[in-house]
């Protein structure tokens, strides 16, 4: 039996994103929006259209401080629960709650639908149990969230190498400059 030697291909890119789940897609989109002239490549072990933990969608966007409904301060107050002490970084949670509404609006522009009442106000649901104020969970029709993100990736002409498994990182002096992988 003769074993065929695999082809070795070198691909050059300015930014390499390993993983095409929601975080990888958002990282590539943000990089492209910040520097549209750079060449960006995503390596994904499956297919970005339905990969990652959001492959089957999601039903809500959590940690959203919607103006008029809740504030980042209320969110931080709600995370100050006895069983969370020492785990939660208040400054990180404040920034997350503060910036999340802008992300909701961006997702909405891309076609994600969020639940609203008859007046057009977002419907927030309680996030914490007990006497803590604020509704930080906004229900959404997110079944096709990954399809929407993959469409946004394609609009930006980001190269996607689906079914490509990363096997190692290439580094020199503690600086990563690439990766090795194989396509199945």
From TrEMBL:
It holds the Pfam family FAD_binding_2. Residues 14-178 form the FAD-dependent oxidoreductase 2 FAD-binding domain. GO terms for biological process: anaerobic respiration. GO terms for molecular function: electron transfer activity; flavin adenine dinucleotide binding; succinate dehydrogenase activity. GO terms for cellular component: plasma membrane. The keyword Flavoprotein applies. Keywords: Flavoprotein, Oxidoreductase. This is FAD-dependent oxidoreductase 2 FAD-binding domain-containing protein. The lineage of its organism: unclassified sequences, metagenomes, ecological metagenomes.
């Amino acid at each position: 039996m003769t074993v065929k030697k695999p082809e070795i291909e070198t691909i050059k890119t300015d930014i390499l994103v390993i993983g095409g789940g929601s975080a990888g897609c958002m990282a590539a989109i943000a990089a492209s929006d910040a520097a549209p002239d750079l060449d960006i490549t995503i390596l994904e072990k499956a297919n970005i259209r339905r990969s990652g933990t959001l492959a089957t969608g999601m039903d809500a966007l959590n940690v959203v401080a919607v103006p008029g409904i809740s504030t980042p301060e209320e969110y931080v107050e709600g995370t100050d629960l006895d069983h969370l002490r020492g785990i939660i970084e208040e400054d990180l949670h404040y920034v997350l709650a503060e910036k999340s509404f802008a992300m909701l609006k961006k997702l909405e522009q891309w076609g994600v639908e969020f639940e609203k009442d008859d007046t057009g106000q977002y419907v927030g649901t309680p996030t914490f149990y007990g006497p803590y104020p604020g509704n930080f969970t906004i229900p959404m029709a997110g079944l096709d969230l990954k399809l929407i993100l993959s469409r946004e990736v394609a609009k930006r002409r980001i190269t996607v190498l689906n079914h490509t498994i990363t096997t190692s990182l290439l580094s020199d002096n503690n600086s990563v400059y690439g990766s090795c992988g194989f396509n199945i």
